[in-house]
Amino acid sequence: MMRLPAGRKLFAELAGQTAATLETPANAVIYGDRALYIQKAEVLLYGKHKAFAYVCCDIARKASETIKCLREAEDDCLTEEQTRTALRRKGVFAIISSKDVPAKKVLPMYYLRQYAENMFKISKSNADILPLRVHSERTLRGCLFINFLSVVIYKNMRSMMPKKINLEDALMQMKNMHCKVFEDNNVIPSEPNKKQKDILNAINNTVGRF
């Protein structure tokens, strides 16, 4: 399942084909706090591969983009036909799938895939995941499980940080903190500076929040 680039010829064809029938109550779908119209159409990719295109119109996005488009059309002195063509695509996007799925499941499936890709992107870019040179499925699953736990912790800690401090800077700041461990196992940390205090306050009481 992938998003069809708006610059493709197929996108223009789909937008034109569904322009008159997309925005009907039968095509209405609620996804989270978004309201959309979604219409399915069968397509051929590269002239031979059967697939399904889901033409979507985000109602709120269309409203804001339409206002902007009409203002630009007046400023640029566009003709009525040019304006009509420009408005046809506002708020519209298309998703291509190799499988025929119900319209209500298209967005959850698409964003789940996108979320998984972002998780792996964070793993590679921020969590420094290493190539998995393993020889059994059990070991592979264990490595992936540990990696996903680290990504979950990373994302949660990043959401706790104050806007003025990103997590990478916070980790660098906390590396400079030291502590003294006594023979009786008592630990006394060094006095934190202002940034370190802000970070400690931000992640305070984290037990059970991950």
Tell me about this structure.
- Strands 1-5-4-3-2 form a five-stranded antiparallel β-sheet.
- Helix 2 packs antiparallel against helix 3.
- The model has no long low-confidence stretch (mean pLDDT 82).
- It has 210 residues and is α+β, with helices and mostly antiparallel strands.
- The chain folds into two domains: 122 residues, no CATH class; 66 residues, no CATH class.
- A hairpin with a 5-residue loop joins strand 6 and strand 7.
- The protein contains seven helices and seven strands, in the order E-H-E-E-E-H-H-E-H-H-H-E-E-H.
What's the overall geometry?
elongated
For this structure, the quaternary state is single chain
Rg value: 25 Å
What is the helix tally? 7
Query: What number is the mean pLDDT?
Result: 82
Percent of residues in helical segments?
40-55%
**What fraction of residues sit in β-strands?**
15-25%
Order of strands in the sheet with most strands: 1-5-4-3-2
List how many beta strands DSSP finds. Answer: 7
From the N-terminal CA to the C-terminal CA, the straight-line distance is 30 Å
Question: Which segments are poorly predicted (pLDDT under 50) over 5 or more consecutive residues?
Answer: none
Please identify the structural class as seen in this structure.
alpha+beta
Major beta sheet summary = 5 strands, antiparallel
How many domains make up the coordinates?
2
Order of helices and strands: EHEEEHHEHHHEEH
